[in-house]
Design a protein that fits this description.
Structural class: alpha+beta
Strand content: 15-25%
Shape: extended
Radius of gyration: 28 Å
Distance between the termini: 89 Å
Oligomer: single chain
Largest sheet: 5 strands, mixed
Amino acid sequence: MLLDELVRRLDGWFAQAASGAEVRVCFRLSDPREHEPVMPDEVPLPEDAWRLEFLLQATDEPSVLVPAADVWRDQSAPLRRWTSHPQERLLAGLGRAARLYPDLEEALRGIHPGQMLLDTEGAHRFLSHAALLEEAGYGVLLPAWWRRRPSLGLSLEVRGRDPVSHVLRDRAWGCGSSSTTSGGWRSAAAPSPRTT
């Protein structure tokens, strides 16, 4: 009957949608200093252009990365084990990611989105959204220097020169006398303490 046909089609659709969860959209941001050599038929990128590449990644085998350009050319054979509709998975994943990173909407206006070229400001916007995309289940590959960036800051240490009894501590601390306190500061860039 008509109802049985509908149930059969919905079950098939659901099974296919559930199996597609085994691949995810992955974003790879390339530093302008890391551009690959240009092939003879390609146009070289501007020196300050950051490339944000779109890929499909197998969730149980993260080393399987298929660039969107190959997905659109139907050269996504490595993904056949995980999904039978990689193009739909890519487009749907990019559409959902655009809710978290609105700059993707520009790339989605194209017929076969495969990458975005960003200026430094655009790369910073992506980097500020990267953690949110990762939390939402997207793969995010960033330049190595971004993951291990040094922390900068200062710390201040204040200690008394002479031990102060508990009874006199509040009074001595509040007076601001340089004879009762000493201090030092430490920089993350120059970790040896400086004293005053």
